[in-house]
Amino acid sequence: MIKLVQHTLQRELTLAYRRRADLLNPLFFFVLVVSLFPMGITTDLDKLTEMSGGVLWVCALLASLLSLDLMFRNDFEDGSLEQMLLSSAPPQVIVLCKIFCHWLVTGVPLTLLSPLLSIMLALPGHALPVLMASLLLGTFSLSLIGSIGAALTVGLRKGGLLLTILIMPVLVPVLIFGTSTVQAIVLGLAWPGYLAFLGAFTAGAFALAPWLTVAALKVSVCD
């Protein structure tokens, strides 16, 4: 099992490194949208501070969606995805490794960029650790839930829009609790409860997503 995880992680990270252009698109989108927001909406620092958590969260969510369609598509096109499902190795473990690698190359970089971009939105310095913690949990939830949608649409040539429509309603709680966490600490209110709800949602997604993703892949690929 350990060798399977190591091999899968090494393979996914190597493939991700070869597709650097696809992985940089979400980061460029995140930077551009957050940078343009103060110029397009308002330059008032007080208003920017109040909206900073929501802006960063919405932009990070949309940026992460850009790379979800690629989670299984290359494996589907070269036939390795079907072999993965038919092999004796537990497909849930392989899927979980692919989800983790997607989060590692998408969600983590977005989280690391957020403190720099928060300066443009006048986010208080004491809120940065909470912002990063919420984004780490939220982007991992996005990768987990998004894997189900990516599995359902992997057989479609242009499944990106359908993927977004499928998973966006499920991501609403993540967006609400993530934004509320940041806004609470900015306003001086109690924020641990919001972060706990976000963590609970992520834990639930972690428990269910690999199984649901494998089932969706079997429907899309094997049937």
TrEMBL record:
Keyword annotations of the record: Cell inner membrane, Cell membrane, Cytochrome c-type biogenesis, Membrane, Transmembrane, Transmembrane helix, Transport
Transmembrane segments: 21-42, 54-72, 93-121, 127-154, 161-188, 194-217
Pfam annotation, one family: CcmB
Gene Ontology MF terms: heme transmembrane transporter activity
Highest taxon above the source species: Bacteria
Cellular localization per UniProt: Cell inner membrane
Gene Ontology cellular component annotations, sorted alphabetically: plasma membrane
BP term (GO), one: cytochrome complex assembly
Family: Belongs to the CcmB/CycW/HelB family.
Listed name of the protein: Heme exporter protein B
